[in-house]
Write a structure and sequence with these properties.
This protein is of the alpha+beta class. About 20% of the residues lie in helices and about 45% in strands. Strand 8 and strand 9 form a beta hairpin.
């Protein structure tokens, strides 16, 4: 009986040892697997955003979960590479392109055109401003796209004309003037340096003026700024505006201006200095009417 009990005891002892050994093996194996899975689930991730990089370790897989874990909030138009639903298998890089849209207004100038029209009543070579030109203004609205702070596109959304332009209209004479009797004879001036056939030869009374005498701040009747050595005021009925004349003792001048007292064979020579104009006095000179083109 005693021997039978001992046999049973030995049997259970062996079974218990085997069971314990099996449990230990199972526990050891499970821990090893758990450790392996834990280590393999970790990944190194780098997020590049706004010119900076952030490196960290995470067990998250989906890009959106990783960004949420890191507390990164995206703008409505931001671009994420790879996409938010992508699952990362290992060490990876995530790039966030910050996109910003902005409405920008810009005022621009509309340049006016210069329109020339022939006037058969005006002498050839003469010009007259019929309508002064005026620039217009337009307001343009753009949608500007920025990526990481840099402008990448600019699209016109709408435009609004604030002020319409007015084109400048200039009348150009094309009426030919018949040469006066005896004007077919060529004359030489400036010591023979220039030779031409004058349209007219006039005996003229000369006076002088400066910008101080003008209420137009030096702007002539023909629309150009008066220039010493070039500008002379004339009676357009005698010398057409825009024509050149040669004044003995003073050289070539261009008929660019008029004056209330300038009638008939009288001309006003322009000087920059008011004192020089005052001291000019009254002079008598022979003037040759050259025409629209100056001899060279």
């Amino acid at each position: 009986m005693r021997q039978s009990r001992l046999k049973k005891w030995g049997y259970w002892r062996r079974r218990t040892n085997l069971l314990v050994a099996s449990v230990l093996v199972v526990l050891a194996t499970g821990f090893s697997l758990l450790t392996t899975n834990y280590v393999s689930a970790h990944k190194n991730v780098t997020i590049e955003m706004g010119g900076t990089k952030k490196n960290f370790v995470t067990v998250k897989k989906r890009v959106m979960d990783i960004l949420y874990e890191q507390g990164i909030k995206l703008g409505p138009d931001d671009i994420v590479e790879p996409s938010l639903t992508t699952k990362l298998a290992g060490d990876s890089n995530i790039r966030i392109i910050q996109v910003k849209k902005e409405i920008v207004t810009q005022e621009k100038t509309i340049a006016f055109n210069i329109i020339t029209k022939k006037d058969h009543a005006m002498l050839e070579g003469t010009k007259k401003v019929m309508t002064e030109g005026q620039s217009g203004k337009v307001l343009e609205v753009y949608e500007v796209l920025y990526k990481d702070g840099k402008e990448t596109s600019r699209n016109l959304v709408r435009s609004q004309v604030l002020q319409g332009k007015t084109d400048k209209v200039v009348a150009v004479g094309d009426k030919r003037m018949l040469a006066s009797r005896g004007s077919s004879k060529s004359v030489s001036v400036a010591g023979g340096r220039y030779s031409f056939i004058p349209r007219k030869t006039l005996n003229v009374t000369l006076t002088a003026y400066s910008a101080a005498y003008s209420k137009y701040n030096g702007i002539t009747y023909s629309g150009v700024r008066a220039t010493e050595g070039r500008t002379v005021a004339v009676d357009p009925r005698v010398v057409p505006l825009g024509w050149w004349v040669y004044i003995e003792g003073y050289g070539f001048r261009k008929a660019e201006d008029t004056g209330g007292a300038i009638k008939g064979n009288r001309m006003d020579v322009f000087f920059e200095s008011n004192e020089v104009a005052k001291q000019f006095g009254i002079k008598k000179r022979v003037v040759y009417v050259v025409g629209p083109n100056r001899p060279y």
